[in-house]
C-alpha cells in the first residue's frame, strides 16, 4: 500500500487550509486537495487538484493514494448560496460525499482490508427550529432544518452514516457551529462573505482612512449564534480522527450562544477609531430568521473536547488579519 497519509478536501478554503497547515506542522503526511489549485493559498500549500463532485476522478484519486484518514471540508457553506442554487448545493454537499464512499468501496477491490476513517462537515443548521423542546441539545436531539443548507446537510448525514454502517466504514459527521478566527501561521482566515470578517473589514477600512470617526452598516444583529474559534474546531476534528470513538455525529461548537451584536461591540472596543456609529440597513436582511439560533439552550459538545479560545480573542485575531490584508491589498 502507499505511504500512510491524511487526505484533506477543500484545502484551499478556511477550515481545510487550516487543517492542512496544522497537521503538516505536526509532522503528518498530508495530501491537501482542492478543485482550484491556482489560488495564492493553494500554491503556498502545494495542493493537488481534486474535484470531488466528479465521481470517476474521485475513484481514481482514492485508488492511487489510499489515504488512512479523510477529512472532507469541501462544500458550499453559505446558506444563501445553497438557496440560490439548490442543484449545485446537492451536487457539492451531498453527492460528493457519496463519491468518497464509492471510492473507498471501489479501492477495496485492490486492498480488501482498506478501511479509512472519514470525517465530514455537518452543521448546527441541521437542528433547525430552536423552538424544539428541551434546554440541552445533543447529537440525539430532534432535527427540523429550516433552510436549504440545513436540509441538505441533514440528508447528507443520514445517507453518509447509513452507507458507512452498511459498508463497515468508520464515518463521522462533525456538527459545527459558526466558526471564525485565524490559522496558527496568521495567513488563513475568512476574508469576506461571513458576518465576523465582514464587520472586521469595515472597522479596518475606517482605521486605514485615518478618520477619527466612521459608520458601520449591517443588517439586523439581534440574533444569537454558537461561535467557536477556528483552531478549536480543527483541534476537535483531529481528536475525533485520532481517537476514533463510536462512529456517528459529534457536536463541535460553543456551549452557549452569543448575541451577534457582541461581535460588533468587541470590534469597536478594540479599534483605534475614536467614534464608530452603527447603522442598520434593513435591506441587508433580518439577520437570518431562517437560520438556527439557540438562545437559552446549551449545546453539549463532543466528549473530552471543549472550546478553549475566548470569543474576544477570536474577534481580535480576525480584526488584525483584516488590517494586514487591507495593507497588503493596497500595496
TrEMBL record:
NAD-dependent epimerase/dehydratase domain location: 6-252
Residues annotated as transmembrane: none
Pfam family, one: Epimerase
Entry-linked PANTHER family: BIFUNCTIONAL POLYMYXIN RESISTANCE PROTEIN ARNA, NAD(P)-BINDING DOMAIN-CONTAINING PROTEIN
Protein name: NAD-dependent epimerase/dehydratase
Protein species of origin: Candidatus Collierbacteria bacterium GW2011_GWB2_45_17
Amino acid at each position: 500500500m502507499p505511504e500512510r497519509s491524511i487526505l484533506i478536501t477543500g484545502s484551499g478554503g478556511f477550515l481545510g487550509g487550516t487543517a492542512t497547515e496544522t497537521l503538516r506542522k505536526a509532522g503528518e503526511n498530508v495530501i491537501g486537495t482542492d478543485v482550484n489549485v491556482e489560488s495564492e493559498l493553494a500554491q503556498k500549500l502545494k495542493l493537488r487538484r481534486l474535484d470531488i463532485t466528479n465521481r470517476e476522478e474521485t475513484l481514481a484519486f482514492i485508488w492511487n493514494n489510499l489515504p488512512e484518514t479523510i477529512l472532507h471540508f469541501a462544500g458550499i457553506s453559505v446558506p444563501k448560496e445553497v438557496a440560490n442554487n439548490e442543484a449545485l448545493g446537492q451536487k457539492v454537499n451531498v453527492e460528493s460525499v457519496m463519491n468518497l464512499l464509492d471510492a473507498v468501496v471501489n479501492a477495496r477491490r485492490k486492498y480488501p482490508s482498506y478501511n479509512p476513517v472519514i470525517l465530514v462537515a455537518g452543521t448546527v443548521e441541521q437542528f433547525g427550529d430552536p423552538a424544539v423542546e428541551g434546554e440541552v441539545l445533543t447529537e440525539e436531539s430532534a432535527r427540523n432544518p429550516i433552510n436549504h443548507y440545513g436540509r441538505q446537510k441533514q440528508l447528507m448525514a443520514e445517507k453518509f452514516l447509513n452507507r458507512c454502517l452498511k459498508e463497515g466504514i468508520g464515518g463521522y459527521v462533525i456538527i459545527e457551529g459558526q466558526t471564525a478566527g485565524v490559522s496558527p501561521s496568521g495567513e488563513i482566515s475568512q476574508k469576506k462573505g461571513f458576518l465576523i470578517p465582514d464587520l472586521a473589514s469595515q472597522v479596518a477600512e475606517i482605521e486605514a482612512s485615518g478618520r477619527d470617526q466612521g459608520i458601520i452598516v449591517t443588517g439586523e444583529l439581534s440574533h444569537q449564534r454558537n461561535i467557536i474559534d477556528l483552531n478549536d474546531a480543527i483541534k476537535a476534528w483531529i481528536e475525533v480522527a485520532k481517537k476514533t470513538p463510536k462512529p456517528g455525529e459529534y457536536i463541535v461548537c460553543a456551549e452557549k450562544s452569543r448575541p451577534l451584536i457582541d461581535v460588533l461591540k468587541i470590534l469597536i472596543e478594540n479599534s483605534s477609531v475614536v467614534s464608530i456609529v452603527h447603522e442598520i440597513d434593513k435591506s441587508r436582511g433580518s439577520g437570518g430568521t431562517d437560520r438556527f439560533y439557540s438562545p437559552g439552550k446549551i449545546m453539549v459538545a463532543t466528549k473530552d473536547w471543549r472550546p478553549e479560545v475566548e470569543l474576544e480573542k477570536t474577534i481580535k485575531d480576525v480584526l488584525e488579519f483584516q488590517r494586514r490584508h487591507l495593507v497588503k491589498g493596497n500595496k
